[in-house]
Model the fold of this input.
Amino acid sequence: MERIIVEKVSKKFKIGFKKKQSALSRILSLFSGREPKKPLEALKDVSFKLDSGEIVGIIGKNGSGKSTLLRCIAGIYDYNGRIITDGRILPIIDPSIILRKRLIMRDNIYLVSSLLGSTRKQIKKRFNSIIDFAELRDFVDTKVYQFSDGMRARLAFSMAIHCNPEILLLDEVFEVGDESFRVRSAEKIKELVKKGASVILVSHDLAVIEKYCNKVIWMHEGKIVKTGKPDEVIKDYLNFKDR
Amino acid sequence: MRLRNFLGLSFEIAKSSFKLRNEGSYLGIFWYLLNPLLMFVLLLLVFSDRLGNNIPSYPLYLLLGIILFNFFQNTTTESTKIIVGDYGDLIKSINFPREALVFGIALKCVFSHFFEFVLFLAVMIIFGNSLSGIIFYPLILIFFFILALGFSLVLSSLTIYFVDLGNLWIFFIRLVWLATPIFYSIGGQNRLFLANLFNPVYYFITISRELIIYSRLPEPWIILGAVFYSLLSLLLGLLIFNKLKTKFAEML
Done:
């Protein structure tokens, strides 16, 4: 069964020189003409398919369009082309910024889990399991700004996988957290995949990609350069990188 | 089911932003009452002998005007900070219904409005006013909420394009505050009356005063005006917000 079909997806950003604009300067620019904007093609004609039970890795340099692709699939950005998805999508892009730092952990779990689409009843049921998986039982009533980066990442990741996603979009989540947490996360992801979930994993850690993915997509400047078995694509990518 | 999820999410947003506002404050809800209370006492001292001379039950007239306007002002000003400020990073990383943010913040303002309304009730009791008009209040508040929500939808989405819209709005709402008969009555001033026909808040304040303080039925055209403005603002709000919301993530 196909979980994700991405067909000829393109995404253009308009890059301005002044990012923030005030109302006054907007009105003035009506008379002086618009400021020049440079279009930047973040994605060009990207197409691929992902079956249920597959883990696909995406590799590529910074700025090659990996995160943009994830955001398009998650429905955060609009795009040209067609993306068909089947199942509950859960993006984990920059996990720790979704936490409200001035709230205690308990409130954060309720807020973020509902943002991720769970009902209050479901959250109540999973609450213990979330804090146990994140190994943060002692800090339920601590404000999150006092957490370390690793603790935040663990909490965010734990909330996300407890939403039982069918499509999991992971953006560099393995770069934080200690070894034991990585292993447990990987186990949990494998468990979800066994139940039929699909995963897209963006990472710069090629060892992780090689270990867990069935398929690897190598992106460069918004295009797919190569798709295939992990060892082959990674070998070509490394050769290319060296040059 | 989806509506229930939406409401649940909005409620969580309202709750968490309510908690964030009260974070580390020892006086807690007292802060919510301080602003309207001080304003009320000050205006009462200054104006009760002059502007309020011909207005029956002037203290109640004044306080109800203040708390109603406060609700509208708080909701709309806070809405200008939601998308660019407080919740920008969430918008960039999770695909949740964006409307829930605006709805949640408006709900939070309803919470704090309740505290102010309790204050008003206390003053009603002190002055021995009849409380029977209060049964109409929930209905008034629903339409007033719709009005504020519509304005908030427009304002919050436009801040994406006009970053300092929030500052402009604070200035503008101050002008509206002065133009709305809160501490004075319009009386026979024709120009002021005509201007207030375009001020949606005027309709709601007038209806509330008539029903709650004076136990009189307001004139039908005022009720129609209130309903018209609230529905119009919600319609425009939804249209504009829907048009712009797909751009939020990339403009942040």
Summary: Residues 179-194 of chain A form the longest helix (16 residues). The first strand of chain A starts at residue 2 and ends at 15. Residues 93 and 171 of chain A are 5 Å apart (CA to CA).
